[in-house]
Amino acid sequence: MKLRLTMSAILALAAAPAVAEGTINVLTWEGYADSSFIDKFVEESGCEVNATYVGSNDDFAPKLMAGGGVYDLIAPSIDTTQLMIDLGQVEPLDTAAIEGWNDIYPKFLALDGIQQDGKYYGMPYSWGAIAFMYRDDAFDTPPTSLAALWSEANSGKISLWDDKSSIYVAARLNGDMDIYNLSDAQIEAAKQKLIEQKPLVRKYWSTAGELVDLYKAGEVVISNTWAGYQSSLLADEGIKVTEFIPEEGAEGWMDAWMVVKGTPNKECAYKFLNMQLSEQGQCGVANVNGYSATNGVAAKSCMTPEQYAALHQDDPDYLDSLLIWQPLGERFEAYLNAWNAVKAQ
Amino acid sequence: MASIIELDKLSKHYASIAAVDDVSFSVEDGEFVTLLGPSGCGKSTLLRMIGGFEEPSGGVIRLAGQDVTWTPPYRRDVNMVFQDYALFPHMTIGENIAYGLKLMKLGRTETAQRVTDALELVGLHDKIDQRPHQLSGGQRQRIALARAIVRQPKVLLLDEPLSALDAKLREQMQLELKHLHEKVGITFIMVTHDQTEALVMSDRVVVMEKGRVAQEGSPHLLYDHPRTPYVANFIGTTNFLDGQIARAAEGTARISVAGVELEAVTDSPRRAGEAITLGFRPEKVRLLSEGESGENEIPGEIAEVVYYGLGLRLAVAVAGGGRVYVDSLLPDRLADTAVPAVGQPVRMALSPGNIFLFDAEVA
Amino acid sequence: MTLLRERLGGAAVLGIPLIWIAVFMLLPYAIIATYSFWIKQYPTFVPAFQFGNYLNLFTDPQYSKVLIRTLKVSLLVSFFAFLLGYPFAYFLAFRCRSQALRTWLYMAVIAPLWVSYLLRAYVWKTILGTEGILNSFLMSVGILSEPSDIFLYNQFAMVVTLTYIFIPFMVMPVYTSLEKIPRNLVEASADLGMRPIPTFLRITLPLSMPGVAAGFTMTFCLTFGDFVAPFLVGGPDGNLVASVIVTQFGTALNWPMGSALAIFVLVIVLAVLSLSDRVERAFSPKEA
């Protein structure tokens, strides 16, 4: 899996599959087109599914801009959906053609970044937190603050996502909680904080598989994580880790399916959207990735009560406590530049 | 004269093959000695052992009385002219020649002087700043010589020095080398497979066969008194005929061969009835004209006529199935009728002193 | 008629590769060069003609830092590849008497080229890791009492990995140039009184310089453009210029900046190539 992820990240351009009748190419996260629930869809709908995986939200734009009309569907996160709309890469959704649209939690439908001019461009699919995670056997007292990622005690055992989100983390540690609207000075402060942390960092992780590897090889004991995902992969490997939401809070994310502008496979694309929003897709991703569902009705009927609770399906307070990603728009460059400067250091 | 090089029971074995097998001879100071033999006879290996590039499997090499058997080449007072010259391609001619002087601590002026002298000796002082690739084969050859001589070694080794040159240039260089030897007075030991080169240039020739010395001596001695058919054949052309001693006396013998009996001079005592190989040079055979008679007449029939400018070479079939080559210089004006025709019967004469006798089993 | 046809045939033979080069090499460079003058503007970038991206290269310390680091790593990799590759090639060309052994050893160096680059980089990860083979070995022989994390995820690991991966590109040209040196030049040097080490320095090394220059150029340029090693075994301080270019073209959607960086790298690589070409020519034994 590790290899597959890396390969898809590096050789993405080479992965342009042949387009057959009734074949949809989806550019998405690993697990979002898992055979555990996609096989059934392929059989019932007659639509073949070719999935290409991304390691980061920043992979969507370059791949779509490379042209070639390769992809039919994409599933970027809420901080990237607006960019897709602004790039003109996606088309408005025919929400009437999507069964269960009205069962989506209103809070997600109201988020910035999936609507433009009164039309929906993104179908909320799954959500979760960018939680933090530590290896149980490495801590006598469980960490509760981001300060643990800046602590000498964990020197050489810390990892952070190689992503602009590291600026969010550092800003919160600095007490700047409005992380999506940071001023230049606040970004600079976050950058300095990250430079200060750098000697303690073992490696910045880029893919889910890489982070799992780092924990497995004993290189890392604390990091941020895509809540529910890497921890379950590690649990499968017999490595005990605990996720936690630090005192400084955590970011939240939501992924939305979008239809690439001018797709010739609209019929299959909408069949796919319908499946993903149904119990089949909602519980499919919950079971594979450990992510929460956006269709409360479907979640309620296909999840066990324990899973339903564990995934905070009906927990408005939890959702409200998360700082849900927002499109950064023109400020994106400032954030990214600061992060690049940290890495260049 | 003192021996400058002494080889004492020198051997070189590769696995089970003896490339050089128990060779002993010495070279006098100032002598020009040639090691002659076909490829694979061990002559190059022998030379390379003298130069220090091969370690002997046994035996001793002495240079000016000192044992140098295990001395590395860079501490031997001998220098080598390599077959393809081995000039350093990344250095100028001047740098090539000065290379061997670097460790002599001569000082700049003296070095420059020696380089100039060496170049003048070979007539190429105008090439000092050129690179080897800009020179012709003959010029490179001379530079290789100059580079070796400039160190004023006790012995100069030459490994087939002329083999890469064309025939014309080779002839010219033979004499040049000989003159150079006379001029510098250094001992030369040359390896060649070319008998003409050996005869023209050397004071002494060592003929080698299968790693051993077949015979050594002056060119004259080797030509006129080859000890074995191998030597006789390697130096010059020799007719060989198988025969039998009819009668033997002190210093002479009568041999029945090709249907006749011939008189020959012999150094070793012979017994009547002994099988023998008899050899003689084509140019020592005289064709008898009609009515003329001579010593040791052999009748035959002309089988082939080859014209080679300087003269004619006739192949004459003799009784017993042998074939004899006869070289004859052409008269000033050659009348067409005088050219012998194939099929024509002839008689040949051969003086007893010009016949070599070899033990039959050696042949 | 036939003449014309022959000419057309000839034109096709020459023309197709030329068109190929034009379309697949020169055109992309021209496009990149054009982009490098454009300007970043949300959501992507717009045509312009300005030197801001190039100016950025020199004024924003993040670029100069990465460039200098890349230069350093590339030089180190080339140097170590030379240090390890040269003696090996020398042994193969001059000391190894057995033809079979020579072929075998040569193949042993070249064979990894047939193995996926990623796989080879991964191998080093398992060797250098905190719980890796190197640490286990050092602990088993008592040099370390607990595993050290100094071997992986830093510049050392990158240099080791890249040296290992690119060493064939040093060994191959050096071996070829050593092979071409006539053996009797070394003998001639000894004959002229030079001991083995001065002989090596004055004859063998200079005559193998074309191979060294070629090997150095290849390892240098390959390292300069590498972004996989920083990704796999590089640490927080392991960003190289190729990774930055990838980021600019990908994450940042700043193709103009990425293009300016790429053009700058191209200039460096061309400079190295012309320098090595000069070295090669200076030392090449020309044939008459």
From TrEMBL, chain A:
Organism of this sequence: Antarcticimicrobium luteum
The keyword Transport belongs to this UniProt entry's keyword annotation: yes
Main localization (coarse): periplasm
Signal peptide region: 1-20
InterPro entries found in the cross-reference section: SBP (IPR006059), Sperm_putr-bd (IPR001188)
CDD domains: PBP2_polyamine_1
Xref: PANTHER family: SPERMIDINE/PUTRESCINE-BINDING PERIPLASMIC PROTEIN (PTHR30222), SPERMIDINE_PUTRESCINE-BINDING PERIPLASMIC PROTEIN (PTHR30222:SF17)
One Pfam match: SBP_bac_8
Name used for this protein in its record: Extracellular solute-binding protein
TrEMBL record, chain B:
PROSITE patterns given in the database record: ABC_TRANSPORTER_1 (PS00211), ABC_TRANSPORTER_2 (PS50893)
Domain ABC transporter stretches: 5-235
Nucleotide-binding is among the record's keywords: yes
Catalyses which reaction(s): ATP + H2O + polyamine-[polyamine-binding protein]Side 1 = ADP + phosphate + polyamineSide 2 + [polyamine-binding protein]Side 1
Nucleotide-binding recorded as keyword: yes
Domain of life of the native organism: Bacteria
EC number(s) from the headed UniProt entry: 7.6.2.11
SUPFAM superfamilies: MOP-like (SSF50331), P-loop containing nucleoside triphosphate hydrolases (SSF52540)
InterPro entries per UniProt: AAA+_ATPase, ABC_SmlMolc_Importer, ABC_transporter-like_ATP-bd, ABC_transporter-like_CS, Mo/tungstate-bd_C_term_dom, NA-bd_OB-fold, P-loop_NTPase, PotA-like
Coiled coil feature spans: none
GO BP terms: putrescine transport
Classification via Pfam families: ABC_tran, TOBE_2
Gene Ontology MF, one: ATP binding
Alphabetized SMART domains for the sequence: AAA
A GO CC term attached to the entry: ATP-binding cassette (ABC) transporter complex
UniProtKB keywords: ATP-binding, Cell membrane, Membrane, Nucleotide-binding, Translocase, Transport
Family designation: Belongs to the ABC transporter superfamily. Spermidine/putrescine importer (TC 3.A.1.11.1) family.
Protein function: Part of the ABC transporter complex PotABCD involved in spermidine/putrescine import. Responsible for energy coupling to the transport system.
NCBIfam families xref list: potA
Subunit structure as annotated in this protein's UniProt entry: The complex is composed of two ATP-binding proteins (PotA), two transmembrane proteins (PotB and PotC) and a solute-binding protein (PotD).
Protein name per Swiss-Prot or TrEMBL: Spermidine/putrescine import ATP-binding protein PotA
Origin species: Antarcticimicrobium luteum
Automatic annotation (TrEMBL), chain C:
Domain ABC transmembrane type-1: 67-276
Location of the protein in the cell: Cell membrane
Recorded coiled-coil stretches: none
Keyword flag Secreted: no
Example of a GO biological process term: transmembrane transport
Topology of the protein relative to the lipid bilayer: Multi-pass membrane protein
Organism: Antarcticimicrobium luteum
One Gene Ontology cellular component: plasma membrane
The name this protein goes by in its record: ABC transporter permease
Superkingdom of this protein's organism: Bacteria
Segments traversing the membrane: 12-38, 73-92, 104-123, 156-175, 212-233, 253-276
InterPro entries: MetI-like, MetI-like_sf
Family under the similarity heading: Belongs to the binding-protein-dependent transport system permease family. CysTW subfamily.
One Pfam short name: BPD_transp_1
Primary location: membrane
Keywords, in A-Z order: Cell membrane, Membrane, Transmembrane, Transmembrane helix, Transport
